[in-house]
Amino acid sequence: MSAAKFDGADMSEVVMSKAYAVGASFKGVDFSNAVLDRVNFGKANLQGAVFKNTVLSGSTFEEAQLQDAVFEDTIIGYIDIQKLCTNTTINAEGRAELGCR
C-alpha cells in the first residue's frame, strides 16, 4: 500500500493487519467500524479521514497528516494514544476525542 492513493474510498468495516501504508494517501477515507491492527501510516495523508468506532491497535502515524481527522469512539491503547497525540496536525476536536492532554 506504500505511496498508493485511496482518496475518498469507503473502507468501513475493513480489516487491515500489518499493512505498510507509508506515504499513501487516504484523504477523506471512511474507516468507520474498521480494525486497523499494526498498520504503518507513516507520512501518509489522512486529512479528513473518519476513524469512527475504529480499532487502532498498534498502528503508527509518524509524520502523518491528520488535519480534520475524526476519532469519535476510536478504540486505541493508552501507549498508542500517547504516540498519536504527539502529531501536531491533529486539530483541537480530534485531540479532545482522543483524550490528548
TrEMBL record:
Xref: InterPro entries: 5peptide_repeat
Keywords: Repeat
Cross-referenced Gene3D superfamilies: E3 ubiquitin-protein ligase SopA
Pfam families reported for this sequence: Pentapeptide_4
Top-rank lineage group of the source organism: Eukaryota
Name of the protein in question: Thylakoid lumenal 17.4 kDa protein, chloroplastic
